[in-house]
Amino acid sequence: MTNIHSTAIIHKNAKLGKDLEIGPYCIIGENVTIGDATTLHPHVVISGNTTLGKNNQIYSFAVIGNPGQDKHYKNEKSFVEIGDDNIIRESVTINFATGEGEKTIIGNGCFLMATVHIGHNSKVGNRVILVNGVGLGGYVGIEDMAFVSAYSPVHQFCKIGSLAMIGMSSPIEKDVPPYILGAGNPFTIFGLNKIGLERNGVPVQSREALKKMFKLVFKSGLNTSQALTRIKDDIVPDPYIMHFVEFVQKSKRGIYK
Predict the structure, then answer these.
(1) Which end of the chain, N or C, is less surrounded by CB atoms within 10 Å?
(2) Per-residue DSSP letters for 52-108?
């Protein structure tokens, strides 16, 4: 059963699913779609061409679907797409993309804590955790199950790899490879995210292969190209290793070493 507070303002053309809870003073725009079993706590604003999936929790003063903070935006039609089972806490802001038909995307099962900012054209994978005050510039990419601690700004166009864990107050200005643990200003890599790998069911043989890979890339003194060649020659093929190599090869801003 859907429950909509009498003070909520909902455009007649908005598309609402079943079993919604929409709290006092929420505002929902004309081109918004909200999936089943989603809760909007008081004072949530959702506008623009925004689609939310099922079973999302959106807390007070979150603002989703406003234009990006981008001088290049010229009123083109672009989008925000948010998946299922996300928790979006107080005062989170998520901007729609710059560019005709482009999208800002949030996957499934993410936890965006209070005052997180998702910039235009950013793409956040599944089960990502962004702690209070994290800010993503435009065109940032964050892969599945990454963890970014509080008050860590991520420069536009940077990528953060799967299961990477970034410590508090760590400005990110290059690409952060998958599976690593790091923190600081300047950002410094300390090792593999061993606990994260284990908790998320990465097989023992893959974790052992990643240890060998880490030594080659970060401790051997080889440059990145040499290290990748050695990985291909010396380490048994493994899907996690292959993903790491592909991430590094596609990096445009360069990776942290």
Answers:
(1) N
(2) E-SS-EE-TT-EEEEPPS-TT--S---EEEE-SS-EE-TT-EEEPPSSTT-EEEE-S
